[in-house]
TrEMBL record:
<dbReference type="GO" id="GO:0005737">
    <property type="term" value="C:cytoplasm"/>
</dbReference>
<feature type="short sequence motif" description="Gly-cisPro motif, important for rejection of L-amino acids">
    <location>
        <begin position="138"/>
        <end position="139"/>
    </location>
</feature>
<comment type="similarity">
    <text>Belongs to the DTD family.</text>
</comment>
<keyword id="KW-0820">tRNA-binding</keyword>
<keyword id="KW-0378">Hydrolase</keyword>
<dbReference type="GO" id="GO:0000049">
    <property type="term" value="F:tRNA binding"/>
</dbReference>
<dbReference type="GO" id="GO:0019478">
    <property type="term" value="P:D-amino acid catabolic process"/>
</dbReference>
<keyword id="KW-0963">Cytoplasm</keyword>
<protein>
    <recommendedName>
        <fullName>D-aminoacyl-tRNA deacylase</fullName>
        <ecNumber>3.1.1.96</ecNumber>
        <ecNumber>3.1.1.-</ecNumber>
    </recommendedName>
</protein>
<dbReference type="GO" id="GO:0043908">
    <property type="term" value="F:Ser(Gly)-tRNA(Ala) hydrolase activity"/>
</dbReference>
<dbReference type="InterPro" id="IPR003732">
    <property type="entry name" value="Daa-tRNA_deacyls_DTD"/>
</dbReference>
<comment type="function">
    <text>An aminoacyl-tRNA editing enzyme that deacylates mischarged D-aminoacyl-tRNAs. Also deacylates mischarged glycyl-tRNA(Ala), protecting cells against glycine mischarging by AlaRS. Acts via tRNA-based rather than protein-based catalysis; rejects L-amino acids rather than detecting D-amino acids in the active site. By recycling D-aminoacyl-tRNA to D-amino acids and free tRNA molecules, this enzyme counteracts the toxicity associated with the formation of D-aminoacyl-tRNA entities in vivo and helps enforce protein L-homochirality.</text>
</comment>
<comment type="subunit">
    <text>Homodimer.</text>
</comment>
<dbReference type="Pfam" id="PF02580">
    <property type="entry name" value="Tyr_Deacylase"/>
</dbReference>
<keyword id="KW-0694">RNA-binding</keyword>
<dbReference type="InterPro" id="IPR023509">
    <property type="entry name" value="DTD-like_sf"/>
</dbReference>
<dbReference type="GO" id="GO:0106026">
    <property type="term" value="F:Gly-tRNA(Ala) deacylase activity"/>
</dbReference>
Length: 149
């Protein structure tokens, strides 16, 4: 399971021109779920995300987590994070989990964020053609992969 965490001032998801989710300060998370991923990867990644200290404290140090700050999280499914670009010029997405399994793990990841103490979790619309807007803060962008945690 892979996640791109972007610290944002604000972020939103629109579908067909209508905003379906919006957050103020917090994390925009692009979540890629691979075929071999399961509940354990979702739990580990959610706990790491909630406790990752990348928000500034009163001294300007990256010393606080989303959990400690009470900031929001917007989770957007993104199977293209599972792209294999080793051969040729067209990415292969065969490593991505099938849609039904991916949706279940996407929802599990959001549930584990809630269990970890994140109070406001917004989502995109799984499988939809979404337009994602954000104001990156810092910019601070972190790539997490459960194979490396």
């Amino acid at each position: 399971m892979k996640a791109v965490l972007q610290r944002v001032q604000e972020a939103s998801v629109s579908i067909n021109g209508d905003v379906v989710s919006h957050i103020s300060k917090g994390f925009l998370i692009l979540l890629g779920i691979e075929a071999q991923d399961g509940e354990e990867q979702a739990r580990i990644l959610a706990n790491k995300t909630a406790s990752l200290r990348v928000f500034e404290d009163e001294n300007g140090k990256l010393n606080l987590s989303a959990l400690e700050t009470g900031f929001s999280v917007l989770v957007v499914s993104n199977f293209t994070l599972c792209a294999d670009c080793k051969k040729g010029k067209r990415p292969s997405f065969t490593k991505a989990a099938p849609p039904k399994e991916a949706k279940n793990l996407y929802e599990a990841f959001c549930g584990y964020l809630k269990d970890a103490g994140i109070s406001e979790i917004k989502t995109g619309c799984f499988g939809a053609d979404m337009k994602v807007s954000l104001v990156n803060d810092g910019p601070v962008t972190i790539l997490l992969d459960t194979k490396e945690l």
